Known about the structure:
Elements: H1 2-16, E1 19-25, E2 32-38, E3 43-53, E4 86-90, E5 117-118, E6 122-126, E7 131-137, E8 150-159, H2 163-189
Helix pairs in contact: 1-2
Amino acid sequence: xxxxxxxxxxxxxxxCSARAxxxxxxxxxxxxxxxxxxxxxxWYTLTASGxxxxxxxxxxxxxxxxxxxxxxxxxxxVSGPHWGALVASIGQIVGTVPPLxxxxxxxxxxxxxxxxxxxxxxVTFEAGNSGDLYFTINDDASGADYSDNSGRLDVQLTVxxxxxxxxxxxxxxxxxxxxxxRILRKNRTA
Length: 190
C-alpha cells in the first residue's frame, strides 16, 4: 500500500510540472534549436546558468546570462546595454533583423514568434505562438562570426502549471489519502 501511495504522490506532482533542458554554446552560429517546444497560450519559466564570453577583444572576461553593460557599436539581436546576454526566440530567425529596443524586464505578453527577447537568469513568459525555442548570445546580429566567443549556458524550461492543473493533481491524490486514513483507523482499532 505504501508503494501505491508513493506512486500516486509522484503522479500528482508530475501533473503539475514539466521540465526540459538545453545547453547554448557561445561560439556556435546564431539561433541554436533547443528542440524545446512551447504551445501558444501556455506560460513558461526559463532559467539559465553558466558562464560565457562574447569575444576575447572586449576584455570583460566571462559573464552569465545577464551579459554585461557594453555597446560594441554593431547591430545586436536586442539593442541596449545587454551585450553577451542570453537571447531566446520562438521560432528560428533567418537573416538579420533591424535593431530591437532593449526590453529589460518588460516582455510582451504574449511573446510573439520571431521576436528575440532577453532571458537574463530567469524569465516567465506566455508563448504567443507554438514552436521550438531558439537561443543565442546577444552578439553580432549578422551572425557572421561567433568563433571568438567561448563558454556555454545551461537553460531549463519549466511549464508554469495552471491553477486547474494543480487542483486536478490534488484531486487525484484525494482517493489515496482517504484510503490511507481508513487503513490507519483500521490498524488503530485492531
